[in-house]
Amino acid sequence: MSTEITGRPVARASKGRAGRQGLGKWFAATGWRHLIGVALCIYAAFPLLYVLSASLNPNGTLLSSNGFFSTIGFNSYVELFQNQQRPFGAWFINTLVIGLTTAAASVFLGALAAYSFSRMRFTGRRVGLVSLLIVQIFPQLLAVVAIFILLTSLGDVFPVLGIDNQIALIMVYLGGALGVNTYLMYGFFNTVPVEIDEAAKIDGAGHARIFFTMILRLVAPILAVVGLLSFISSTSDFVIASVILVSPENQTLAVGLYSYVSEEFTSNWSVFAAGAVLAAIPVMALFLFLQKYIVGGLTAGAGK
């Protein structure tokens, strides 16, 4: 009886040491990764929560919103749609039209060019690929002055391609993104076996039929990625859009919302933050919509 009683504390102590050793091994192996992951999530979520808190703060300043959600009101969201000189609804629609059109056209043109470089052999192919890579070294921001002069001259002949026209802005976006999208898709197109094309050609299929009915389905992941990146870059652009779009009714969200904080004495950061929150909704929705296609395309390609 005494041996049984005295043996229990020893057993409990040994179990405690074993538990601590097991916890230490787990932390050394994978636990520190979870800790870093939690820290990064907090670091990434902090700006989002700060902007959301500022949008709900009726005082209109960022400094007064240091206490998260200390005051909550929806006056800033109401003011966005009631200001006649700053048509937020028109900005939102313009951003969606320009972003979706640019994304769709970038995917289509980039896929056509990537298929040509990947499957066809012609004179100047290697030089063309190297030229695309070299052009992307220089940012599009360096060409703002040249773009403005070019569109001013084109507007005298073709008004639809002149300053303060959304079609002109879309054309500028397509020209700037075609190179990087083509090079990005080119690497993915090379992963598709050439034997698929050769088997289709034996059955009498041409390049157009192979491209539209077979290749596009196999490269669905890169199409989704390029479309998402094109949409994000076009909707978040400020410099080029502010140079081309002048009228308030033709501007995008990035250009229009800047007017709320550009004035020295009448800056309204609360309304600006509210507009930023609403502007993030289309990007999040498109990302969630394309995410399943990216994962589905990758798993389907692996199954084949």
Question: Can you lay out the helices and strands and say which pair or pack?
Answer:
Elements: H1 2-55, H2 75-82, H3 88-119, H4 125-135, H5 144-157, H6 166-189, H7 194-202, H8 207-218, H9 220-236, H10 239-244, H11 253-262, H12 269-303
Q: How would you describe this structure to a colleague?
A:
By secondary structure, this protein is mainly alpha-helical. The chain has helices at residues 2-55, 75-82, 88-119, 125-135, 144-157, 166-189, 194-202, 207-218, 220-236, 239-244, 253-262, 269-303.
Which descriptors would you attach to this protein?
single chain, 304 residues, mainly alpha, 12 helices
Describe this structure in a few short sentences:
Helix content is 76%, strand content 0%. It has 304 residues and is mostly helical.
Element-by-element helix/strand order: HHHHHHHHHHHH
* C-alpha end-to-end distance: 68 Å
Classify the secondary structure makeup into a structural class. mainly alpha
**How many beta-strand runs?**
0
Mean pLDDT: 82
Query: pLDDT under 50 segments (min length 5)?
Result: 1-5, 297-304
Helix segment tally: 12
Rg from alpha-carbon coordinates: 28 Å
The helical percent reads over 70%
Instruction: Kindly estimate the percentage of residues that lie in beta strands according to DSSP.
Output: under 5%
**Based on CA inertia axes, which overall geometry fits?**
flat
Could you give a short account of the major beta sheet?
none
